[in-house]
Known about the structure:
This protein is of the alpha/beta class. It has a single domain (8-228), classed as Aldolase class I (TIM Barrel), CATH 3.20.20.70. The protein is 45% helix and 13% strand. The protein contains twelve helices and eight strands. Helix 7 (172-180) links the parallel strand 6 and strand 7. It starts with 7 loop residues before the first strand and ends with a helix. Belongs to the DapA family. Homotetramer; dimer of dimers.
Amino acid sequence: MANLSLKGVGVAVITPFNEDLTVDYPALKNLLEYFIDSKIDYVVTLGTTGESATLTADEKIKIINFTYDTINGRIPVVVGVGGNNTYKVIEDLKQLPLDKAAAILSVSPYYNKPTQEGIYQHYAAIAKSTDKPIILYNVPGRTNSNILPETTYRLAADFKNIIAIKEASGNMVQCMHLVKNKPEGFYLISGDDHINLPLIACGFDGVISVVANSHAAEFSELTHLALNNEFQKARAIQDKLLVPMDLLFAENNPAGVKGFLAAQGKIKNILRLPLVPASEKLYQAIQETL
């Protein structure tokens, strides 16, 4: 998708479940419509927030196609395809229905702790195996390894289809180095809702958000205001969302955001093991906040 823009807000879409742990497709449809009504710029399906590690291959295919059908071309759909087995990721890229995907989001290998050269070779192999635009995903808190800025831009220079990074290191100095050396046309996307506003002020292009699942309109407005340099108005919304964002990540993701969505009546408060719903204490705090 040559004209793909990743500026603004993408939602890391949760996967709603029924009591029998099947996927709740009516709830998913309602969420996707809510995102579009709230002026979200694109959605990300099968990311880690979507509990993709617990979904079967058949479920992933069905969710992707359901998302395409529901969105119906109104906004771009990004599909999460990542893992710590490079050749399995490449196989998934062949097996999953990606014809309508605007891009793929691929998390850096977790647990293995590859060197920077290993990370480079991992993404190089993926980039060579597909013509889809690729968004790198750096989240050291979960992968236990960090994609350094020089590795990011080495990949961007060597592969035209590596077009962006979702940066969730939380390291503001590293983020500033990313901005300083950003090549033309490369997107810097925040992977941390809490620091989305300051990252945009530094030069980031937007965010792939968790809180936008439950507070889509507010977070969309905040982000678009910041991108228009209306920081005073954006800060007022940020102040209102700080406590919800604190609660969102108090235990684990997506337990917090599913707690919010359940309290809002949008989904059933069900996760697949090894994740469990928010504790009673946290859920009460979520309800009081709402």
